[in-house]
Amino acid sequence: MALISEHIEGDTRERILEVAERLFRLIGYQKTTVGDIAKELRMSPANVYRFFESKKAIHQAVARGLMGEVELEAQRIVAKPGPVKERFRELLTTVHRMNTERYVGDNKLHEMVEIAMQEDWAVCVNHMECIAGVVGQMIAQGVASGEFEAPDLQLAALCACTAMMRFFHPQMIAQCATKPGPTIDQMIDFVIAGLSPRH
Amino acid sequence: MALISEHIEGDTRERILEVAERLFRLIGYQKTTVGDIAKELRMSPANVYRFFESKKAIHQAVARGLMGEVELEAQRIVAKPGPVKERFRELLTTVHRMNTERYVGDNKLHEMVEIAMQEDWAVCVNHMECIAGVVGQMIAQGVASGEFEAPDLQLAALCACTAMMRFFHPQMIAQCATKPGPTIDQMIDFVIAGLSPRH
């Protein structure tokens, strides 16, 4: 019985997050109320509050979910076989593509990102550290295969991610889309050059 | 007589811009009115409007002035003698330092930057292109001296500037100051590595 009820509770939590994400996308984070989310789920706001103490807590969980998908995909690319440089390019391109899909353009999730960046930096910093960690693992593989040279892996990963800011950071993706600059492939070439061995 | 009156007119223009910049710094762009600027100069608002058709025109001229100082200093570094890598580092560090002094911190000029970025992208894009041009000249000197390798100078300059976004872009300087990341010297090392010849 305990297991079943835990299962149902987890299920309800997931459903709240799904509906919240959909409403945030559709009408924006600010305009969505806990009441809207409850109504959509045909439950009482009080029931939503049993799972999340505030709209902010829902926001955090939705943000974690969205960022978690990017992290999972990044980890999948690092774990699969193949030449490092190709997978390195795939990794950086995937982070760019997924961040663009999630936070830029017509959908209103960019509002959520702005709020996360103002109020909830810990969630963002954890995500950036996770992505930098995965990039570091990939660079380590490149060092092992002789494709890369990096005396300090963590620093190399931080520099590679910082160099990609125009393509990773949601606000920069949106702001730079129509501004002069390198393509993402050109930028990745530049980062790979910075990591390549000099004999 | 014509020369004298032109001189006086130019002088008045300069004085309006000086006062406007001081007020923008002190009380912010939004809160400063053309009336405030006129009062400070002991002239009528109508006289200010003889020189600038709107507050926006004053804003543009102040922004151009601030950016022009950075451009001038960058050009000075490119023109002086000495090893390229040292001057390249000095160039990137100077752009970072001057942008930080101008737009970040206690003074309220960051409000002006935000408005320029929303409404007045041409001014910002021109400035970015000018800085990329100077960075390109420096890379060309490095190619000539054998310190750098760059088959496409313009692309190399764009990539170098893009890689430095965390340290060049006023909003990113402000946002990243307390976030994990490389130091500017570490980032410049990474950019130099990307430009260094591979034999």
From TrEMBL, chains A, B:
PROSITE patterns xrefs: HTH_TETR_2 (PS50977)
Record keyword Transcription regulation present: yes
Family annotation (InterPro entries): Homeodomain-like_sf, HTH-type_TetR-like_transc_reg, HTH_TetR, Tet_transcr_reg_TetR-rel_C_sf, TetR_C_27
Highest taxon listed in the record's lineage: Bacteria
One Pfam family in the UniProt entry: TetR_N
Record's protein name: TetR family transcriptional regulator
SUPFAM superfamilies: Homeodomain-like, Tetracyclin repressor-like, C-terminal domain
DNA-binding feature ranges: 33-52
HTH tetR-type domain: residues covered: 10-70
Protein's organism: Bradyrhizobium guangdongense
Keywords: DNA-binding, Transcription, Transcription regulation
UniProt key word Transferase: no
A GO molecular-function descriptor: DNA-binding transcription factor activity
